[in-house]
């Protein structure tokens, strides 16, 4: 059995490899392939076999991996842990070129509900994906390529207290005018500009003209040539070969195990890459030993979705058909009977895994007095009578029984009646697919900050709980009678 520090160290590696949702999917893909999972593609027919392991990606920001039990037959259930790959951040605008007061700035838009004041005075860089034109043998093709500039190239400086004496009474960020990273001074950029580059137009003023030409070659009128040069150098191409991109600002400070007793994880994107990692590692380890699928009658699955932070309404979000598509295609591969998918869904179970709010010692009044999740206390089952979470008595019982069998700690959370309650992919999938769902998450502080923290012990508790779920659910579910 792995120690808490070993599991947390593996999480650190995952986090440091995953500055964006695209990179998180790429890292998950590498780990799955190393564990013997075979990549399949939604555009192609699927040839699936019992006791085999597969995965597919959608938009390269959502990934679904599954292992089919040797005794699986069409109509049997799916045992799923669902999480999400995205986190609040600032993303580059389609026209990011801003020049003000002799400085090159980068126009960004906010993604999700971030704690935007935490983005000031951080050493920032850029990462994401680009579409690159590839010319070979007189023909053109277009490649998807991940990019990440390692060194800090931008910063959002705060205003000195001498110029805003009331700032400590309440720092209110104007996300349009204050949240622009500084890339360089205009004079330095001009001195280092290649002689062939035409970067004479400021503030994206040349935003008129042919839309099609700008969509296929974002030149100096949309983005600073200096920025394009940096990106091209990382991608190993010419700036003129960059056709389009989805990029975001990222903190360059690495994730670490920290604290006086080395009991904490300090990192960005714990919400929700911590749960993504724990569920992925649990699936891999629950399907790696020889003969581990010998007696499995169901399908063990992990689904990591994009766009949870903005409502999941996208082609690759939890609100899309991606989950139902996966369940129905797997089922139909083993039987042409279309009615079996409904039977399969009613035999399935989803663990919606999204980080939870730990009790904060400086703000203890923000928690309901009987529901105060603590660090080192294990996963938190989330409850909400208004269905902001999808947990009910049956689904929480199943998750508790698994914890009790393996002596894994477990906690409960209910938001105060006088406070609004967040939500997860749980209610979206429960209502959209009709699958039994429990909402859970590891406790953390500073949720949606550029720098969050959780406990090392809870990383291991989460991993072990998810692994036990994959191993035990089929047998436990056969003992439960509800709709009789």
Question: What do you see in this structure?
Answer:
It is a single chain. By secondary structure, the chain is of the alpha/beta class. Helix content is 27%, strand content 25%. It has helices at residues 4-16, 21-34, 186-191, 211-216, 225-235, 270-286, 322-334, 340-346, 393-406, 425-433, 456-477; strands at 38-39, 53-58, 62-68, 78-84, 89-100, 103-111, 124-136, 139-148, 182-185, 242-251, 256-258, 264-267, 299-305, 349-353, 356-357, 379-382, 410-413, 436-441, 443-445, 452-455. It has a nine-stranded mixed sheet, with helices on both faces. A five-stranded mixed sheet has the order 11-12-20-19-15. A three-stranded antiparallel sheet has the order 5-6-9. Helix 2 packs parallel to helix 6 and helix 7 crosses helix 8. It is globular, with a radius of gyration of 24 Å. The two termini are 40 Å apart. Residues 197-215 have low confidence and may be disordered.
Question: Nutshell version of this structure?
Answer:
This protein is α/β, with parallel strands linked by helices and 484 residues long. The protein has 11 helices and 20 strands.
Overall structural class, as computed from helix and strand content, comes to: alpha/beta
| Secondary structure tally: strands | 20
Mean model confidence by pLDDT: 93
Helical fraction:
25-40%
As a percent range, the share of strand residues is 25-35%
What Rg do the Cα atoms give?
24 Å
Query: So how many helices?
Result: 11
Order of the strands making up the biggest sheet? 1-2-3-13-4-14-18-16-17
The main sheet comes to:
9 strands, mixed
Principal-axes geometry comes out as globular
Stretches with pLDDT under 50, minimum 5 residues: 197-215
Distance between the termini: 40 Å
Keywords: Aminopeptidase, Hydrolase, Metal-binding, Metalloprotease, Protease, Zinc
GO molecular function, one term: aminopeptidase activity
Cofactor: Zn(2+)
Organism: Anisodus acutangulus
């Amino acid at each position: 059995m792995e120690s808490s520090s070993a599991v947390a160290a593996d999480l650190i590696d995952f986090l440091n490899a995953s500055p964006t949702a695209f990179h998180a999917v790429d890292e998950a893909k590498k780990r799955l392939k190393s564990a013997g999972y075979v990549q399949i593609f939604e555009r192609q027919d699927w040839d699936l076999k019992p006791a085999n392991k597969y995965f597919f990606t959608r938009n390269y920001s959502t990934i679904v991996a599954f292992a089919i039990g040797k005794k699986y037959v069409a109509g049997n259930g799916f045992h799923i842990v669902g999480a999400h790959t995205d986190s609040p951040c600032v993303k580059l605008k389609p026209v990011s070129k801003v020049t003000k007061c002799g400085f090159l700035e980068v126009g960004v838009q906010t993604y999700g509900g971030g704690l935007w004041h935490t983005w000031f005075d951080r050493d920032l860089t850029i990462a994401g994906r680009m579409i690159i034109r590839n010319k070979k043998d007189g023909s053109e093709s277009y490649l998807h390529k991940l990019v990440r500039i390692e060194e800090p190239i931008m910063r959002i400086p705060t205003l000195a207290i001498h110029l805003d004496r009331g700032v400590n009474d309440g720092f209110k960020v104007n996300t349009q005018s204050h949240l622009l990273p500084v890339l360089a001074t205009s004079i330095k950029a001009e001195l280092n500009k290649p002689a062939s580059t035409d970067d004479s137009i400021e503030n994206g003023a040349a935003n008129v003209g042919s839309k099609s030409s700008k969509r296929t070659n974002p030149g100096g009128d949309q983005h600073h040539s200096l920025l394009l040069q940096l990106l091209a150098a990382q991608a190993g191409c010419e700036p003129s070969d960059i056709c389009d991109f989805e990029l975001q600002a990222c903190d360059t400070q690495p994730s670490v195990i920290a604290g006086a007793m080395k009991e904490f994880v300090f990192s960005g994107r714990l919400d929700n890459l911590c749960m993504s990692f724990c569920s992925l590692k649990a699936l891999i380890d629950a399907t790696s030993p020889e003969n581990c699928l010998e007696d499995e009658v169901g399908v063990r699955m992990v689904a990591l979705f994009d766009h949870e932070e903005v409502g999941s309404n996208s082609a690759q979000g939890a609100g899309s058909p991606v989950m139902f598509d996966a369940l129905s295609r797997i089922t139909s591969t083993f039987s042409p009977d279309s009615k079996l998918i409904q039977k399969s869904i009613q035999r399935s179970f989803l663990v919606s895994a999204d980080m939870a709010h730990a009790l904060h010692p400086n703000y203890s009044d923000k928690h309901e007095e009987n529901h105060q999740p603590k660090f080192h206390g294990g996963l938190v089952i989330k409850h909400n009578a208004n269905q902001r979470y999808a947990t009910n008595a049956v689904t929480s019982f199943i998750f508790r029984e698994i914890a009790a069998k393996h002596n894994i700690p477990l906690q409960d959370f209910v938001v105060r009646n006088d406070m609004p309650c967040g939500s997860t992919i749980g209610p979206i999938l429960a209502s959209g697919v009709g699958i039994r769902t429990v909402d859970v998450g590891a406790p953390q502080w500073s949720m949606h900050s550029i720098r969050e923290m959780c406990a090392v012990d809870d990383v291991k508790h989460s991993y072990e709980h998810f692994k036990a779920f994959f191993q035990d659910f089929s047998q436990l579910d056969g003992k439960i009678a509800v709709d009789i």
